Amino acid sequence: DAKTTQPNSMESNEEEPVHLPCNHSTISGTDYIHWYRQLPSQGPEYVIHGLTSNVNNRMASLAIAEDRKSSTLILHRATLRDAAVYYCILRERGRGETSGSRLTFGEGTQLTVNP
Amino acid sequence: DAGITQSPRHKVTETGTPVTLRCHQTENHRYMYWYRQDPGHGLRLIHYSYGVKDTDKGEVSDGYSVSRSKTEDFLLTLESATSSQTSVYFCAISGGLATGELFFGEGSRLTVL
C-alpha cells in the first residue's frame, strides 16, 4: 500500500475548526483515502473516506487536492470529545474478494483540544 | 454501534502458556481481522478471514494462528505466549468491499510475564 505522512501532533481550541493534513504523494489512481480516529482506550472508528471529490458526513469533511497527492480532514467545530489519534490511510480499490478491507495504519496525528 | 465483542478484555499470563482470544460479531459480516497495537508501531495486521474456514496472514503473523469455524466467531491463538506478544489486540469486521469500512472491537489487553 502507498504510504501517507501526517504530523505527529496538532492542537486546537474547543469550538474552532481543525484541519488535519495528510500527504500521499505516491497515491495511485485506484486508492481510496480513508480516515479513522482512535479515542483513548478504544478501538479505531471510521470517520470518512473519498476517492477524488470532496466528501461530507455528520462527523467531518474530507478535502482532496486536485492532484490527489494530499488531503485534509476538517472538523468544523472541535469538541473535547474529538481529542484522539487521527489516521489517514490509503486503500486500494478493486482488490479481490480474498483481500477484504485490510488497512495499514501508520502512527497518525495526535489531536489535542483545549477548552 | 457494530456488534463486536472481544473476550477476555484483560488477561495476564506467563511465558510459554497458550492463550486464545475470541472475537464475536452479530453483524453477519464476511470479513474479520485481528490487529495488535504497540507503542511506536501503530496497528499491525496479524491475520484476517474472508469467510468461514478461509484465513490468510497479515504482516505480523509469526507466533499466531487463527480459526473461523462459523461466521460470527474468529479466534486468535498464541500457542506459546512470549513477552514480545504483550500488546493490545483489536478485532475488526467489515462487510462488502464497496465501502471497506472497518468496525473495531474494544480491544483485549494481554500481558505476558
Notes on the structure:
The complex is a heterodimer of chains A (115) and B (113). Chain A has no helices and nine strands. The mean pLDDT of chain A is 91. The relative contact order of chain A is 0.34. Helix content of chain A is 0%, strand content 45%. In chain A, the strands form two sheets. Chain A has a five-stranded mixed β-sheet with strand order 1-9-8-3-4, with no helix packed on it. Chain A has a four-stranded antiparallel β-sheet with strand order 2-7-6-5, with no helix packed on it. Chain A is an all-beta fold and 115 residues long. With 113 residues, chain B is an all-beta fold. Chain B has no helices and eleven strands. Chain B has strands at 4-7, 10-13, 19-25, 31-38, 42-51, 54-57, 65-70, 73-78, 87-94, 103-104, 108-112. The termini of chain B are far apart. The model of chain B has no long low-confidence stretch (mean pLDDT 92). At the A-B interface, β3 and β4 of A face β4, β5, β9 and β10 of B.
Q: Can you tell me the overall shape of chain B?
A: globular
Q: Which pair of chains forms the biggest interface, and how many residues does each contribute? A: A-B, 25 and 28 residues
User: What is the tally of helical segments of chain A?
Assistant: 0
What is the CA–CA distance across the termini of chain B?
Answer: 34 Å
Unreliable residue runs of chain A: none
Distance between the termini of chain A: 37 Å
CA-based gyration radius of chain A: 14 Å
Largest sheet descriptor of chain A? 5 strands, mixed
- The secondary structure category of chain B is mainly beta
How much of the residues of chain B is beta strand, in percent? Answer: over 45%
Tell me the strand percentage band of chain A.
over 45%
What is the helix/strand order of chain B?
EEEEEEEEEEE
Q: Could you state the oligomeric state of the chains shown?
A: heterodimer
- Choose one word for the global shape of chain A: globular
The largest pleated sheet of chain B is described as:
7 strands, mixed
Rg of chain B, nearest Å: 13 Å
Q: How many distinct beta strands of chain B?
A: 11
Average pLDDT confidence of chain A is 91
- The chain-level mean pLDDT of chain B equals 92
Q: How many E-type strands of chain A?
A: 9
Count of separate DSSP helical elements of chain B = 0
